[in-house]
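Below is how a single chain appears once it has passed through the pipeline. First comes the sequence as given, then the structure the pipeline wrote out for it. We keep one example in the README because the format questions we get most often are answered faster by looking than by reading.
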Amino acid sequence: MPQPQQTFPPSPPALTAVADIMQPPLTTVERYDHVAAAAYLMRHAGTTALMVLDALTDRLIGIITEADVAHAVADGKDINEVRIHDVMTARPAVITPATSVREAAKIMTSGHLRHLPVMDDTGLLGVVDISDVCRALLTDGQGQNGEPS
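Resulting structure:
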């Protein structure tokens, strides 16, 4: 009896948890930094959000996004003077590494969020953005070209 043909390379396993798609929070800021500094860091880090950490405890206390910077500018605020804590989202929604990609999508959709910090008992582990989630959902169980594997 002939053996079934194998496909090489094998398809990657289905991405089920955000741990599979999260990015490390490489660039963080403190609440008392200027909004201009956050904008500069976002531009040079190639990101659209920064996690805001407490300087003393190194714990996540907020998130600042490019939308927050844009709103500050649109409101006529001087981003060289205004501080991050004045425009950030305090106590943002967070998920764990075990949160499913689908659940992250639901949280993002219901809360109109583009970024979710990923945390566990030890602290901030990473971040997922809407692009990461969409890419994972679009390729879940599919090959590189979108065809079923």
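The radius of gyration is 19 Å.

See the next section for the split statistics.
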